[in-house]
Amino acid sequence: MKRARQSPPDAEPIEEHDSGFVGPMTLFDTFPHNDTFVETRTLELLPNPSTENAEIYTFMHNRQDYGVIDMIDAKLSANLRVAVTVGGAAPAADRNVSVNMAPLRYGWKTKAVYLNNQLITPQSSKENELEFTHDFLTTVPSEYLDDKNINLMIRDTPGQMDVVTNLHHNTNATGNTNLGARERFVKINQAAVFRCIDKLDVLGRVKRYVPTSFDIKVVLTRLEKNKVLYGTAAQCAVVELKMADLKLVMPILKPNAQLSAAINDLMIQKGEECRYYKITHRYVAIPVPINSRHIQHKDIFNGARPTRLVTKIISQARYNEAYINLRQSLDRRHSEMPCTYDEYLSDFGMIVTDLSPNRDGFSQVLPNSTSGNLGVKIDFAQDTTAAQQLICIGEFRNQMSVGFGTQARLKYAA
Description:
- The chain has 2 domains: 53-161 and 176-253, no CATH class; 274-402, Jelly Rolls (Sandwich).
- Helices cover 18% and strands 33% of the residues.
- The chain is built from 11 helices and 19 strands.
- The chain has helices at 22-25, 103-106, 127-138, 141-144, 148-151, 179-187, 225-228, 233-236, 257-269, 322-329, 341-348, and strands at residues 37-45, 56-61, 68-70, 75-84, 97-99, 108-115, 118-119, 194-199, 209-211, 216-222, 229-231, 239-255, 273-288, 294-301, 308-314, 351-354, 374-379, 388-403, 409-410.
- Strands 1, 3, 4, 8, 9 and 12 form a 6-stranded antiparallel sheet that branches.
- A hairpin with a 2-residue loop joins strand 6 and strand 7 (118-119).
- Residues 1-20 are annotated as: Disordered.
C-alpha cells in the first residue's frame, strides 16, 4: 500500500491565484481555439498629435462590440529619419550622428497606460532603462537577432559601447571601433528614411487577451534627445529624430457567436472579471560619494515587496562572480545568455537577486509575503575614487482584475 505524497512540514505553502481570461477559458479546451474565432482584424491606433516631432503622443481605443485584442503582438511603427532641428533638412554627410538601439522601444521617457480610465503602470522617468533591463533579463539572442534590421535592436560593439568616434566611417581602420553603432548609422543617416517596427508592452508584461470592451489609453513621452541620438555631442545637438506615420497596431480576434455570448453573459450579466498577471518595475538611484568604502541603505522599497532585485553601479569595475549568479537567477545554466562573460565585465555588469523564487517557471507565482522593507549593504575592497550611482531596480509581480465598465484593480499596492 502506497502512502500519499506529503510536503515537508516546514515547506512554505504556495499561494494560488486565478490566471488569464478566467470565465471563457473554462468553456473551451484551449484558448484561443481554431473554432473560437471567425475572423482576425487589425486595430490601428493613430497618435494625437500626428506631427513628426511631438514630445508626447497619445493613443486612444474606445470600447466597441465584443472582440479580443491580442496584446502579445502589439506593435509600434514609424518612419524614422534624422533631420536638422531648424528647417528639417537632412544633415551633412560628415555628421557623426546615429540613433540608439531600438528607438521605438527604448526611446520613451515615460509610458503611461490607462485601462478603463485607471492608470495601471507606475509612472517612471526611467522607462527606457527599465525596458532595457527587463529585455536583458528575459530575452536571449535568438529572440532579437533575426529582427535587428527591422527594429534596430543592434547592440553597440561590446567593449566599445561608449565610443562615439567616427561612426560615419565604414571600417575600424579609419578610427571607428564601435561597429554596432555604425550599423545603425547606415540605416538612418543623411536623407535615409527607415521604417522601424517594434513591440510595445502595453499592459506591463501581460501576455493575455483583452476584450475590446475595455477603454485603453497609451501616453508616450519622448526621451531626452541626448539619450536617443548617439555620436558627437555638438553634432547631435543640432539634429533630431523625426517620427512620421507613427501608429500602434494590435490584432483583433472576432469571437464566434458562442464565445461572444459567453463573454457577454459572464462579464455583464454575472459581473465576472478578467484577471491577469503583470510585472512592473520601480527604479531608485542612490549617489555613492567619492572615498566610500561601506554603503548601507534601508527602506529602498517599502510597502509591497519586490520579487527580484537588480543592482548595478555605474562606472565601477564589475563583480566577477556576478555573471555566474546571473545565469543561475535566470535559470540559464545551459542555454543562451544575452552576453558573454567578457562582454558582461566590460559593459553589462549587474547583480540579480531573487527574493521570491519563481516555482512554476512562468512568472505566475506571487510572493506569499507581499509586504516589508528592503535594504542593501555593499562593502568595497577599497575606497571609491570617483562619484558613482548605485541603481536599484525592484521587480514586482502582481495580479490585475478588470470587469466590464469597471476600473482595473491590483491585488497588491505598490
